[in-house]
Amino acid sequence: MVVGAALGAGVTALFFRAVRGSKTVQVVETDLARTSLDGLRAGVIVLDPTDRVALANPAAVGMKLLKNDESGLSHAVLRSLVAQVRRSGDPRDVELDLPRSGGRNPLGVRVRVTVLDDEHVHLEVEDVTEAHRVARVRRDFVANVSHELKTPVGALQLLSEALLEAVDDPETARRFTERIQHESARLARLVSELIELSRLQGAEPLPEPEPVGVDRMINEVLDRSRTAAVAKEIVVRWEGEHGLTVYGHEGQLVTALANLVENAIAYSPEKTSITIHSEKSGKRVKIAVADEGIGIAAEDTDRIFERFYRADQARSRATGGTGLGLAIVKHIASNHGGRVEVSSEVGVGSTFTLRLPSRPPAGASALKSQTRMADMKTKGRP
Q1: Hey, is 119 helix, strand or coil?
Q2: pLDDT at position 321, please?
Q3: Can you give the pTM of this predicted structure?
Q4: Is 218 in contact with 252 (CB distance < 8 Å)?
Q5: Which of 142, 299, 302, 349 has the most CB atoms within 10 Å of its CB?
Q6: Which parts of the chain fold into alpha helices (H)?
């Protein structure tokens, strides 16, 4: 921002100085200054003594910092900043959230306002919406982690205290012990999924993509979920094409599909069915998991892949969910060049669909070959 502000202010000053040069120099310098201003990613605005816009580059217009007729600033807070700088003569450098129409998230900006000369005021506006969003996500994540960890830890503390008082009552002691096992398992799963999510979001490099048999993936998931399905008398069946191949890391892909099936089991009534359907679709393979569960409301479908988001808080805690499973699925799919989609109807069921590439990423084979050749040379092999 400091470099951008200096460049913007310097170019703007050049633009205004150009009018005092010879005609030839004026034309050259003005064209150069205008081109430079138009190329800046930051918004640059110059106001005249009446606070009308004397100059504005396309970035400023794109951020909708000007009124519809581009005669002045569109936000009252910006006009207030300009008035303060005019009175004091001192530059101001602040970060703000400017409201936007249509219910969209606010526009995060960093604004530097300076006096350009005796009459003109210069504004340099940088879009920092993404930085503000990341900061909000980080704050929310820390708050959510603290809350999610506090719940099982507090439960373990209370249960252990109750167990100490029930040592002479075997039945009560057994019941408290079972609850301690349940809460400790939930805590262990939460920590494990936090580590997995952190790794998927870039803490570790992605492994080299390999061909993965979809049949092997689905069979592994069916085996993992058998105990939970049998306990609720749920039938998990597989239909569709066999012999398909996707590219990526087998362990991660199995985790993503297993999370979808485990979710389907957790949120389905007893004695229902779950269907895994696989098919080739163009350059991708579709693996859909359809259940006959409680379904998801339309207002929740856009948010269920967020970390810790639960459409039904009470039901989620009853099933032992951490609120991280679908976030992990989303990141695994994204890291593999694919995506995950959901369609659902409350009271009818949900279908989650993984769309994964059926071909290796461009350049992956060449890179793998080069790596193998380098390894062979290192080992002294021809």
Answers
A1: coil
A2: 55
A3: 0.53
A4: no
A5: 349
A6: 2-17, 23-39, 58-62, 76-88, 129-165, 170-198, 214-231, 250-266, 313-318, 325-335, 364-378
